[in-house]
User: Which sequence fits this backbone?
C-alpha cells in the first residue's frame, strides 16, 4: 500500500514539474530567416505564434566592429500568429561587403509575455560575384577576376605586411581583416556607397575591418602596394583607437607608406621628390602634417612622401621598440608632443629637425622666447584618413553603420586610392620636377 501511494505521488510530481517545452513557451518561433540584395537592402523575417495577441516585435542588431546596438520596430499585423519583417535600407545605411550583423528579436504579447531569441550572426556579402578566397587566422582575401596565382600573390603580400607591422611596430592582428579585390573600377563603384567619388580606387572601413580595392589582374604591381597600404591603416587604427584622439596624420599615413614599400616603388619616386624639396627648402613641417593633408595633388604627394620618410627615420634611428612604445602611448590617448617626449625623448620640433639633419635639409627655427608655437590641432577620430594616391578632396565619407547618426558619431570609412586624372596629374608634376633645372 505504501509503495502504491509512493508511485501515485511520483506520477503527480512528474506532471507538475516536467511540463512540455511548448507549455513552457508563451511565444513560439516557427521560422526565421535573413534575405539581402547587396547595396539595396537586408531584410530580417520571423514567424511567431502565441496564446495571446502579439502586439510588439522588435529587432535588435549590432554590426561587428561598431559599438552601438540598434533597435527597429518590425512590420506586422498584430495577432496570435504573425510574420514580422524589418529591413535595413542599404541605399541609406550602407554596409561594406563582409560585414557581420549580430541580431536577435524581442517579442511582447498583450498578456505581458515576452520572448528574446538567441543572438545569431549574418554575413553580408556582395553575392553578385563568384568569389575565390584565401584565408588564415589573420585575414581573408576575396577576389573573382584573375587566377589562383594572382590571389596567392596578394595574399602572401598581405601576410608579409602583417609580419612586418608586428616586427617593426609591435602591433599584432587580434581580429581577422577581410580584403575584397574588385577586378574593375566599374565593379568597385557598384560596390561602394552610393555617391562615392568617381576617382575612388578603394576604401578602408576601419571599424568593420574591411578593405575594398580595385586591382585588375594585369595591374598586380599596383595591388602589391595598395593592399599593404590599406591593410596597415586597418591594423594601426585598431591598435591605437581610443575615445580621446587619433594619431598624427603624418604617423598614420607614414606607417602605411613605409609598410607598403612605396618609398622604394619606381612609380612613386618619393625619395627623389623629398630630396628635391629639401634642396629648394620647401619641406613641410611635421606640425603642418599632423592634421589634414593638402588637397592640392602636388602638395599631397609631398605630404605622403615626407611622412613615409619620417616614419622610416624613427624606426631606423630610435628603433622598432620605440615605435611600438609610441603607438602604445597613443592607444591610451595622448597629446602629440607628450607622446613623442615619452617614447623618443624629443618633441615634434626636435624630431622634425633631427630628420631634416639626416637628409641634409636646413633646420627649422624654434619659436623665440615669449613666442609660443601654435598648438597643433589633434586629429579627432571623425577625421577621414586618405591613403596611397592623394585625392582631390578631404570630405569624410559616412561610416555606413546602421545605427542612428547619434550612435555612430566618430565612425568613418577611409576613401582611398584615387585613380584616373589625379594619378596623371601627380605623375606629370613629378616628371616635371625631376627634369627641371633645379634638379640638375
Assistant:
Amino acid at each position: 500500500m505504501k509503495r502504491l501511494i509512493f508511485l501515485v505521488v511520483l506520477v503527480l510530481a512528474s506532471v507538475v514539474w516536467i511540463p512540455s517545452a511548448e507549455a513552457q513557451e508563451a511565444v513560439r518561433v516557427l521560422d526565421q530567416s535573413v534575405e539581402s540584395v547587396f547595396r539595396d537592402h537586408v531584410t530580417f523575417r520571423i514567424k511567431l505564434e502565441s496564446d495571446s495577441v502579439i502586439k510588439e516585435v522588435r529587432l535588435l542588431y549590432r554590426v561587428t566592429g561598431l559599438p552601438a546596438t540598434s533597435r527597429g520596430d518590425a512590420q506586422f499585423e498584430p495577432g496570435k500568429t504573425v510574420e514580422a519583417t524589418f529591413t535595413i535600407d542599404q541605399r541609406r545605411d550602407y554596409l561594406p561587403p563582409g560585414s557581420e550583423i549580430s541580431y536577435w528579436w524581442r517579442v511582447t504579447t498583450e498578456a505581458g509575455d515576452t520572448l528574446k531569441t538567441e543572438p545569431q550572426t549574418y554575413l553580408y556579402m556582395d553575392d553578385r560575384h563568384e568569389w575565390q578566397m584565401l584565408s588564415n587566422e589573420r585575414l581573408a582575401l576575396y577576389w573573382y577576376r584573375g587566377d589562383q596565382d594572382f590571389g596567392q600573390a596578394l595574399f602572401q603580400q598581405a601576410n608579409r605586411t602583417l609580419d612586418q607591422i608586428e616586427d617593426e611596430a609591435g602591433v599584432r592582428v587580434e581580429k581577422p581583416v577581410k580584403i575584397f579585390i574588385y577586378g574593375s573600377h566599374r565593379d568597385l563603384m557598384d560596390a561602394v556607397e552610393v555617391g562615392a567619388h568617381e576617382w575612388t580606387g578603394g576604401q578602408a572601413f576601419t571599424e568593420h575591418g574591411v578593405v575594398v580595392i580595385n586591382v585588375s589582374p594585369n595591374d598586380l604591381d599596383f595591388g602589391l602596394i595598395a593592399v599593404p597600404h590599406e591593410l596597415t591603416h586597418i591594423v594601426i587604427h585598431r591598435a591605437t583607437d581610443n575615445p580621446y584622439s587619433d594619431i598624427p596624420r603624418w604617423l598614420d599615413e607614414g606607417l602605411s607608406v613605409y609598410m607598403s614599400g612605396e618609398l622604394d616603388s619606381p612609380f612613386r619616386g618619393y625619395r627623389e621628390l623629398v630630396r628635391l624639396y629639401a634642396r629648394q627648402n620647401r619641406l613641410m613641417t611635421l606640425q603642418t602634417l599632423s592634421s589634414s593633408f593638402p588637397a592640392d595633388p602636388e602638395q599631397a604627394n609631398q605630404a605622403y612622401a615626407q611622412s613615409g620618410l619620417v616614419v622610416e627615420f624613427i624606426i631606423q634611428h630610435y628603433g622598432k621598440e620605440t615605435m611600438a612604445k609610441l603607438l602604445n602611448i597613443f592607444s591610451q590617448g595622448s597629446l602629440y608632443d607628450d607622446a613623442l617626449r615619452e617614447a623618443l625623448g624629443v618633441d615634434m620640433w626636435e624630431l622634425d629637425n633631427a630628420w631634416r639633419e639626416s637628409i641634409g635639409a636646413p633646420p627649422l627655427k624654434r619659436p623665440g622666447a615669449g613666442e609660443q608655437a601654435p598648438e597643433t590641432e589633434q586629429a579627432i577620430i571623425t577625421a577621414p584618413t586618405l591613403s596611397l594616391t592623394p585625392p582631390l578632396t578631404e570630405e569624410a565619407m559616412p561610416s555606413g553603420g546602421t545605427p542612428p547618426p547619434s550612435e555612430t558619431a566618430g565612425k568613418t570609412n577611409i576613401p582611398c586610392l584615387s585613380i584616373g586624372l589625379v594619378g596623371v596629374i601627380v605623375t606629370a608634376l613629378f616628371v616635371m620636377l625631376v627634369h627641371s633645372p633645379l634638379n640638375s
